[in-house]
Design a protein that fits this description.
InterPro entries: TPR-like_helical_dom_sf (IPR011990). This is Tetratricopeptide repeat protein. The protein is mainly α. The protein is built from 13 helices and no strands. The protein has two domains: about 90 residues, Serine Threonine Protein Phosphatase 5, Tetratricopeptide repeat, CATH 1.25.40; about 130 residues, Alpha Horseshoe (Serine Threonine Protein Phosphatase 5, Tetratricopeptide repeat), CATH 1.25.40. The protein is globular and about 60 Å long. The chain starts with 5 loop residues before the first helix and ends with a helix.
């Protein structure tokens, strides 16, 4: 887990998995997860997905491992498999993590431009969310706008997310696009540039997972610059 590179992470994981000692299920699953991360960071997405499926068979932290499998499937171009894994994560995860899984499902559907489905998932995430509720509500508003709906409380939604801790990080991506929708292009540019700066400095796995958001943020910034 403390490995500095994807290659060394993979070496240590394989060494642990090849040990002659009997591995308990949790240790086995966590070693497979480290191997998955090594393959994912090395952009070997098909192999990463296969390893995530092996880990899922151990029935340890199944919702977390479904998230892993979803990321690998999505990066490998298999949207439907990714959505199936995310739905499974929402079903199998504890109540405390269910809103996060539903939000991830909604965000994936949003990027796929399946806005009505995205809104349905995000509405459930917002209903059950706690500390991240402003983020889920804002993402829901963005999906509704993309679907052609009118959002009457848009400014209040923007303010609530901007003032919440969850408005940092990924929240900047949502804030940027809500500000753009509200015609506040200067604010949109500031939020989106902050999102891109933070993402570029993130760990490799997160950077890969956010490639769709990065493309959308850059496209929106290009639209702002063109005007």
């Amino acid at each position: 887990m403390a490995a500095k590179t994807a290659r060394s992470r993979g070496i240590y994981a394989r060494r642990g998995l090849s040990s002659r000692a009997t591995l308990d299920r949790t240790t086995h699953a966590m070693l497979l997860r480290q191997l998955y991360l090594s393959l994912y960071e090395g952009r070997r997405f098909g192999q990463a997905h296969s390893v995530a499926l092996q880990a899922l068979e151990l029935d340890v932290l199944a919702d977390v491992l479904n998230q892993d499998a979803a990321r690998a499937a999505l990066a490998n171009g298999d949207l439907e498999a990714a959505l199936a894994h995310l739905r499974a994560a929402a079903r199998r995860g504890p109540a405390s993590r269910r809103p996060f899984h539903l939000w991830t499902l909604g965000g994936t559907l949003f990027l796929a431009q399946r806005y009505d489905e995205a809104a349905a998932a995000l509405r459930r995430a917002a209903r059950w969310g706690t500390s991240d509720k402003p983020l889920y509500r804002a993402h829901l508003a963005l999906a509704r706008i993309a679907a052609g709906e009118r959002v009457d409380d848009l400014q209040e939604t923007i303010t609530a997310l901007a003032e919440a801790p969850c408005g940092q990080g990924y929240g900047r991506f949502i804030l940027g696009h809500l500000a753009y929708a509200a015609g506040e292009w200067h604010a949109a540019k500031r939020y989106l540039e902050a999102f891109l700066k933070r993402t570029s400095a993130s760990r490799p796995a997160l950077g890969i997972a956010l490639e769709g958001e990065v493309r959308m943020a850059r496209a929106t910034l290009a639209k702002i610059s063109a005007n």
